[in-house]
Fold:
Amino acid sequence: MNVEDAVRERYAAGAARREESLCCPVGYDPKFLDALPEEVLERDYGCGDPSRYVREGDVVLDLGSGGGKICFIASQMTGPSGKVIGVDFNDEMLALARRSVPRVAKNVGYANVVFHRGRIQDLLLDQDALDDWLGNHPVMSVSDLPALEAAADRLRREAPMIPDASIDIVVSNCVLNLVAESDKRRLIREIFRVLKVGGRVALSDIVSDEPVPDDLKADPALWSGCISGAFQEGELLREMEVAGLYGIAIDAWGAEPFRTVRGIEFRSITVTARKGKEGACLEANQAVIYRGPWKQVEDDDHHVLRRGERTAVCAKSFSILTTGPYADDIVPVQPLTTIPEAERVAYDCSRTAPRHPRETKGLGYSATNDGSTAGACCPPGTGCP
Structure:
């Protein structure tokens, strides 16, 4: 039995009856659970709660959505102005999720969840649409296979299941480890493709502390049990970096292993990241100051930020470093006179010299004052005596 067949069979059984070995204990906000059918709650398999990163109005994509629990929680968090899309390839799990949609919609007062059948490493191809094509063009022999492949390519191109740059946040809960090893890099690249610029990622999964040996990878039972297909903990973060994501962080770490096999520990983690490094590097005379406490750090674009030093950055990097995951550690330094976007020239990305204060103030700056400016020395939110 190959990996995909093993996963399909095990999760088909898990859709019919709860299988305790497929999940870790996870605490969800109970206020979001009342609207969910009992069978969805009972047949949920995961190792984290990526739904807690969802914001009001988000377009959410849940990879390997299973019975729909994370989707239905996210539905309430994003509200009626948002949308939630679940993708899974297991027919039994999809049936459970789809028949629950009207019940949850009735309970929350709106409908904003849809489920697609597809492989999470190929988010362009809607397998239901391909099945519709097969209904009119059955494959009777090997000679019919080129037509099937051509139809699949056409659907990817003309009717993508998840279009480019259409998602605000991609979440998943213990499913990346079920994807064949040969497809894992493609999977991470698909996550990057579907995200909007500024989009976010929250992936809860099982990772190993050591590389998994080949004989364990060849065990279908261990693979379908979220063990043999696990990313090695550093490998997952490196693949996300290679794909172009930034601000990658381990936001949750299981103190105790989910399982230990031959001394290799498998534990649950949640990793977050963002998309948004694309675009031109333009000079706006901006700088950032790293607050500390580390002596220096390096960001995903290889800027070395030294504690207390005015580091020169382009306008794009300035925006990235002064918002989102970096903001609390960075002091933004804006120029005294803003350079209009249309007048900005290419920034020298090879620059390593700090930004001299005169670059931001201007060479002709010569102001003098007596320090009496109201509030100049007062902490934010206070008044001077």
